Amino acid sequence: MTAQSSPVRRLAAALLLACMALFAASPVLAAEPGGATTFKAGDAPAKVDANDPMALLASCDRQLEECKTDAVGMPYLIAAYLALWAILVVYFFLARRGQQKLEAELQELRARLRDYEEQFLSGAKGDKA
To answer: Using CA atoms, how far apart are residues 39 and 64, in angstroms rounded to an integer?
Structure first.
């Protein structure tokens, strides 16, 4: 590796540390073991008497608590998207930098070819005349 790749390595290390910090700060790690939640897609909501306001409030509280416990994995999802975007940005940056190097090398080769043609081929044509 060259010295030019050092900033890229530092950027990748910083992104990795940021993702690790996000994982470490997630509420999932602070939760009690065995307190894992699962989505209950098949469960039907309990029937509540529409004329009993306390039962309605209790039902809303239960639904709110289920929403909070179901959203526990959101920091992991956010971290995954951040990591994906960071990887894509670094990849496209490196690909573009490589393309620019190739374009510069191609221009240099074209210039050398022009110099060669001017120096040797035009001189060879002049000798024949």
So the answer is: 14
Q: Is 38 a domain residue?
A: no
What is the C-alpha to C-alpha distance for residues 69 and 88, in angstroms, rounded to an integer? 31
> Per the domain annotation, does 37 fall within a domain?
no
Whole-prediction pTM: 0.44
Calpha distance 67→63 (Å, rounded): 6
Sequence-distant contacts of 88-94: CB under 8 A, at least 24 apart: 90/8, 90/11, 90/12, 90/15, 93/8, 94/8
pLDDT for 28-54, tens place per residue?
544 444 555 455 554 556 677 777 777
Please name the residues in contact with 12: beta carbons below 8 A apart, sequence gap of 6 or more: 90
Q: Give the Cα separation of 65 and 5 in Å (integer).
A: 49
